[in-house]
Write a structure and sequence with these properties.
By secondary structure, this protein is mainly α. The chain has 17 helices and four strands. It has a single domain, classed as Up-down Bundle (Growth Hormone, Chain: A).
């Protein structure tokens, strides 16, 4: 028998590229917002950077609301057609965002209200990315490798999220490109990905001519594929305490983490603006702003590897998923507390403040791969729907309320006072998250005992 092909790793690389593109397109908002608002004001408007809050909220609201519908599409029709549709959709609206502040032929002015609408439509598209990535990984990887595969996906996403502020500085601040041209390049990268994806990806390994029987056997070990059309069991989902705990847990990370994505670059420039006096200082500040996401990618990798290693060594899937999540949330809370104290007692020390937030980014991201692996473990053939539900609650309750809370505090409290209030709240929320991880059991599928599909339950 010939050795097993390894085509699933080509699929993993393709999905990693998509994860990077999602974060690049999203993180660009944090870097571009001041330039966008300046161009809007050049036409006689009087917007401030605080008004960009409504743009972010429009994206996050749509991103949350369309998670579950996108997941259902992926479970019902497969991730291939669903991902092609959603990526092309959001690519269009990233490109259209570049027209903000311009008057188009026919006299149509792309103003602030249109920008908010474009970001809502952008969020609708991006909502389909990670649930369908999760479904693709469920289809293409055996249970023993899902945590690791998911950790590599999230490592890639965090890498590009952290690199985007630096990439933006190199393209726009130092490279001379306009913010419109930068968004155009980002949209073009997503369009190229769609072409490659359409040529390479198939919904299941059985549909691909590049997968031989040996690799197919390895992927399907312990699993029976559905011989019927998949119908999402909504009643079982709604009644599942496991799913509610999973959704509550994911609220925590979104509430506490989005400060790093949208607010930290601006906050660092405001608090340590003296570093902006030279090109080297500007790059340094951009690196420090993106470093929590860059270092977070190692947390993603470590969480997934440790989770799968623990399960292989002990056979205990429940604690193999729980432990990195509990440690990650607990230590992230400690880091936010330490960063608060650093800001209060040593205001000028940019390295201490940034270093503690970098550590926080690492510990927060320990939970990413185990969380999404649990969604696959308990969702199984409904993995995209369960992942979508988790991400919907995380972004609707967590991200939307977190962004609203952060924006409100920063608007009404000056400098260090805002940091103290925000970081203390984040710490308390993380400690609640430790308790929620105790309620999550990866060994209890949402729709057990299905004679047509599934896989053996590992304790």
């Amino acid at each position: 028998m010939p050795p097993a092909t390894r085509y699933r790793y080509v699929i993993l690389a393709l999905l990693c590229a998509l994860a990077m593109i999602t974060y690049m397109d999203r993180a660009a908002n944090g870097s571009a917002k001041n330039l966008i608002m300046q161009d809007l004001n050049a036409n006689g408007s009087n917007y401030t950077a605080d008004d960009f809050f409504y743009v972010l909220m429009a994206f996050q609201l749509a991103y949350a609301l369309f998670e579950v519908p996108s997941g259902v599409l992926g479970d019902t029709y497969g991730p291939r057609s669903t991902l092609l549709r959603v990526v092309l959709w959001w690519t269009l609206f990233v490109a259209l965002t570049a027209f903000t502040g311009l008057t188009l032929p026919g006299g149509f002015y792309v103003g602030f209200g249109v920008l908010v609408g474009l970001q809502f439509l952008f969020g609708m598209g991006e909502a389909g990315a990670f649930p369908n990535i999760s479904k693709a990984l469920y289809n293409w990887f055996p249970a023993s490798q899902r945590g690791t595969a998911k950790s590599i996906i999230w490592m890639s996403a965090r890498f590009m999220g952290g690199l985007t502020p630096v990439l933006w500085v190199l393209l726009v601040d130092l490279g001379g490109a306009t913010w419109r041209e930068a968004l155009g390049l980002f949209a073009a990268a997503a369009a190229v990905w769609c072409v490659v994806f359409a040529l390479v990806f198939r919904n299941t390994p059985a549909e691909s001519r590049n997968v031989n029987d040996a690799e197919l056997a390895a992927i399907y070990a312990g699993r029976v594929e559905a011989q019927r059309k998949i119908i999402v069991p909504w009643g079982k989902l709604i009644r599942s305490r496991n799913l509610w705990a999973l959704c509550g847990m994911y609220v925590v990370t979104n509430f506490c983490w989005y400060f790093l994505m949208y607010d930290l670059p601006t906050r660092m420039k405001a608090e340590f603006g003296h570093l902006n006096t030279s090109d080297l200082g500007t790059i340094q500040l951009a690196l420090l702003s993106g470093a929590p996401l860059l270092v977070g990618m190692f947390g993603c990798l470590a969480g997934g590897f440790f989770s799968d290693w623990f399960i292989r060594k002990t056979g205990n899937r429940k604690w193999g998923r729980r432990l990195p999540g509990m440690v990650g949330y607990g230590m992230a809370g400690v880091c936010y507390t330490a960063a608060t104290l650093a800001r209060v007692y040593d205001e000028s020390n940019v390295w201490l403040f940034a270093g503690l937030l970098i550590a926080m980014g690492f510990f927060n991201d320990l939970i990413m791969a185990p969380a999404w692996a649990v969604a696959q473990d308990v969702g199984r053939e409904y993995a995209a729907t369960v992942s979508g539900a988790m991400n919907m609650f995380g972004n609707l309750v967590g991200a939307v309320t977190g962004i609203f809370f952060t924006g409100t505090i920063q608007k009404h409290f000056p400098g260090t006072d805002a940091i103290v209030i925000l970081f203390t709240t984040y710490t308390l929320v993380y400690f609640v998250g430790v308790g929620l991880w105790m309620l999550i059991d990866a060994t209890k599928p949402i729709a057990p005992a299905d004679p047509h599909a599934g896989e053996s339950t590992t304790p």
